[in-house]
Amino acid sequence: MQVHAGHQSNQLPPPSDGGEQGPASRKPIVAARDIVKRFGGITALDGVSLDFYPGEVHCIVGENGAGKSTLVKIIAGVYRRDGGAISYDGTVHDLKTTTEARSRGTAIVFQEPGIISSLTVAENIFLNEEGRFRLGGFLNTWARNAAAAEALRSVGCERVDVRVRVADLPYEDWKIVELARAAITKDLRVLVVDEATAALGQDGQEMLFAQIRALKQRGIAVIYISHRLHEIFAIGDRITVMKDAKIVTTMPASGCKLEDLPRLMVGRDVSEYYSRTDAGVPGAERGPAVLEVRDLSVGNEVKNVSFSLHRGEILGVAGLVGSGMHALGRALFGAVPYKGTIIVHGKPHTSLTPRKAINLGIGFVPRERDKEALVLLHSIVDNVALPNLRTLVSDRLKIFVSEKKKTALAERYRKELLIRTPSVKLNCAALSGGNRQKVVLAKWLARNVSVLVLACPTRGIDVGAKAEIYALMELLRERGLSVVMISEELPELIGMSDRILVMKEGHISGEVVRDVKVTEEAIAGQML
């Protein structure tokens, strides 16, 4: 039996083969049955059925485009289903908005920032909830600020001033604000967490996990989505794997191993992520230096750092949040002021700017891809063209950019980088994380850069897209392009780097040369 959108029924069909019943003694808070969702000619969900139980963290994993975010957005009232039924406590409801979902105790923390940066922390936490603090027609901001501070304390955070604008906070604190806003949902019963840790440092992740465990103890159902598969085993009770808009399997987390998930998601083993087959030889001959850093300092974040990057080398940079590795990457692109010297192709520079860096053949893929590397509301064509406009002028009217050339350039890299999109005219906001990252890479490859600074190259990207990014990095390395890869993931640093610089408190605390015997523990020991 299939209940279509708009059809009201109190009879809930049994779960399909894709779902898995929980213990018989419990009843699900939320049950999805035969959910269908289409976007134009694309089927995002194809008959998906799942149950979500109180006091359980149910993790959903899958490649970008598998349908997991679409499913939870239907549960949270962001999208309306095209077919099937969603029930709350056994009664089918056709939720039209997130406000309706919140009224039934469902809140969501989105992958992308869901707050308004120009408003204060308190204004964001109680957005559309101002009626709570109105007295005689006036808004009691003191009471709202006090309630916002209490909401932050409830999620384990007291350091954030609720009176400051969100735009003035570190980016990872934005997620804490979103979590606090979710936590104040009246009679909260279901919390959806969609890729929230992608923006968090280690401290933020631990805070989030602690709060999820606390919510679980209160009997709240937590639906958790992450591309970081190791997190699934740190926080999850049950795991559902999705692929191609359908459910592959649902199983207890205790009955699954990390290496099983990629095989279920994309058909390949974890060991196949990394395309590097050479083990590396300590002291092996390297190509000429294309970039040298001498006594580089960035405020209090980077202190007298020196190193060289060679032609055709992937140089990894490891470190904890606050180690200075991200400030180092921004300095190499001239995005922050620095002291010291950056030598590019033998020529010293003491005051690089992004414009100078680009003209010298340096490209930069920042950690915050959507904020700093893409114009999300513009097309793939426009984004790929941005640093390449001088080469795209019309042959006839030299003062105008040729739309034909722009489109041809985007089409070329759509094919080369396997950017999955029905059209290069599509806005980047409609792309998955992996495809957005490929657009960022495309604009620098079109510029024919010789040095590419990659900060967290696979952040927020599924395992299938990761393998494609790694294969592309190896291809670029073989072609002679030099890469500085700044990463918070030790497995990818070990799997892809020729050398790894380890940063601690602004200094380089060690260097590890690629070798089959390199372990995460050895690198972590130099980070702490």
Q: What is the strand and helix layout of this fold?
A:
Blueprint: E1 30-39, E2 42-52, E3 57-62, H1 68-75, E4 83-88, E5 91-92, H2 98-103, E6 106-109, H3 121-125, E7 134-135, E8 138-139, H4 141-154, H5 171-183, E9 190-194, H6 202-217, E10 221-225, H7 229-235, E11 238-243, E12 246-252, H8 260-266, E13 289-298, E14 302-310, E15 314-318, H9 325-332, E16 339-344, E17 347-349, H10 354-359, E18 362-365, H11 369-372, H12 380-385, H13 403-416, H14 433-446, E19 451-455, H15 463-478, E20 482-486, H16 490-496, E21 499-504, E22 507-513, H17 520-527
Parallel strand pairs: 3-10, 3-11, 6-9, 9-10, 15-20, 15-21, 18-19, 19-20
Antiparallel strand pairs: 1-2, 1-4, 4-5, 7-8, 11-12, 13-14, 13-16, 16-17, 21-22
Helix pairs in contact: 4-5
Summarize the structure.
The protein is α/β, with parallel strands linked by helices. Helix content is 30%, strand content 24%.
Write out key terms for the chains shown.
disordered N terminus, 528 residues, six-stranded mixed sheet, Rossmann fold, alpha/beta, 22 strands
Description of the structure:
The structure is a single chain. With 528 residues, this protein is an alpha/beta fold. Among the domains are: 115-182, no CATH class; 289-527, 3-Layer(aba) Sandwich (Rossmann fold). The protein contains 17 helices and 22 strands. It has a 6-stranded mixed beta sheet with strand order 6-9-10-3-11-12, sandwiched between helices. It has a 6-stranded mixed beta sheet with strand order 18-19-20-15-21-22, with helices on both faces. A hairpin with a 3-residue loop joins strand 13 and strand 14 (302-310). Helix 4 packs across helix 5 (171-183). The chain is globular and about 70 Å long.
